[in-house]
Amino acid sequence: MSARETAADNRIQACAERFLAMLINERGASQHTVRAYAREVRSFALYLEEVLGREAAIASVEHLHIRAYLGVLYERGLTKASAARALAAIRSWFKWLAREGAVVQNPAALVSTPKLPKHLPRVPSMEEVNRVLDSLEAGRKQQEDAAAWPERDRVIFELLYGCGIRNSELVGLDMPHVQWKNEAILVRGKGRKERLVPLGDEAALALREYLPQREAKLQAAGKGKLVLDGPLLTNLRMRGDCRLTTRSVGRIVKAIALSRGLAADVHPHTLRHAFGTHMLEEGADLRAIQEMLGHERLSTTQRYTQLTVGQVQRVYDETHPRAK
Fold it and tell me: Active-site residue among 85, 140, 272, 278?
């Protein structure tokens, strides 16, 4: 490679696009992750070109440029959380650049993450979640919500809350991922990492009631080839590849939650959060919850779950030798 080609290859925009291509081709990142990283990395790359020039090499970027960019984001009205997301993407980019030898060190490592307010989202109680699930079962028997698909919608709730999986993991499930013999489902998480999650009795029952309807609808739409190998959760009208989208799941969860008296901010991730919190309340081991949620670090699980002061006090009273 000539010196001119090497220089062009190390220009800021070229390095940004190589990083994004790597996320897709090597890491197998989800479309959502790629879109988020592309937005943040390209925005920062554009800022760098305005400051350093279009021909500037990526190695000329310093931590001061990153700090200045965060200041620009604040001037644009972005929150600290948004700035922290941008910085996380920039750090990943430069960490990869350092491994590739394009930069000597990661300048983003010298930039502190904006301090975020520490607050935990409200988690519906076990009684509230069970009330919703019981109402879905009753509605199915009484043929309420006729405009929707009660059997499928019950499966959505049972898998999100019963298995603690992400919305993207839910819609990514295919028929072969349900392992009836193992009483588990095979979940492909972030970075295409696979894990087995136990399939509870209620979730299994909901699936068995839903699957015959799914098959009948696929056959009626002339898409019988998808019965055994297609997406587990299908859209109502069997359009396209028939796979339900994350946006549709979000609408379904919010509509049902509101109609059953839950808070307006309930969404699919709320049920995953409730899964971890309720299991911890009932005495589950934190590392077991980490495995089921698919968290790489235990610290993520610790932030993800929450206990009330009373619950913490009860655990202390029941377990610490000096409290007895």
Answer: 272
